[in-house]
């Protein structure tokens, strides 16, 4: 009498398939990859894609070590790719688009307005003021400091960052404020995104609150 030995199927049954946990670093990398789109808004957000890449790399290391105990390789790869794509894209956008200085203006930053130890104002800022011989105009980017008026604004303070980016500056100094007065019929509406203003810089060395003022004839 011939007996038959049951052949074990190579495909695991439903009961043999264990539940695999999704790697948290892979999920974090994916989330940070999506949030990396904010890198184009301000240089403060460039750290997001950097952390996204690190999280994805850490996830891949853990997944290689744990084998099939966890899943998330695809999530980690997508997170790393999105972080790199949006990080590089945001950096290029900020450098070539947001830093575009209009013709006839000299581009400056808030770093240029910070005094050296022992000085009340920046020596460089004093040299940027227009003179009888040189009607020099500067162009600077920043954020409108929130006030009561939101539309048709002609007089406002420009600052390097807003409260939502408090990790960039823990406290605003007097030299972090530029009082902007729009000339002619120019006005601006309040917005939370960065703007650029150009005009003639005035420096008041005796002012302890806001030593810098800008008679602006250009807004973008």
Describe the fold and architecture.
- It is a single chain.
- With 220 residues, this protein is an alpha/beta fold.
- It folds into 2 domains: 78 residues, no CATH class; 114 residues, Beta Barrel (OB fold (Dihydrolipoamide Acetyltransferase, E2P)), CATH 2.40.50.870.
- Helix content is 29%, strand content 18%.
- It has 4 helices and 8 strands.
- The radius of gyration is 27 Å and the shape is elongated.
Structural class determined from secondary elements: alpha/beta
List the helices and strands in order: EHHEHEHEEEEE
Overall body shape: elongated
| Fraction of residues in H or I helices | 25-40%
Number of strands: 8
In short:
The protein is α/β, with parallel strands linked by helices. The chain has helices at residues 24-35, 47-66, 73-98, 123-127, and strands at residues 21-22, 70-71, 106-107, 138-144, 155-159, 178-182, 195-203, 212-219. The chain has two domains: 21-98, no CATH class; 106-219, OB fold (Dihydrolipoamide Acetyltransferase, E2P) (Beta Barrel), CATH 2.40.50.
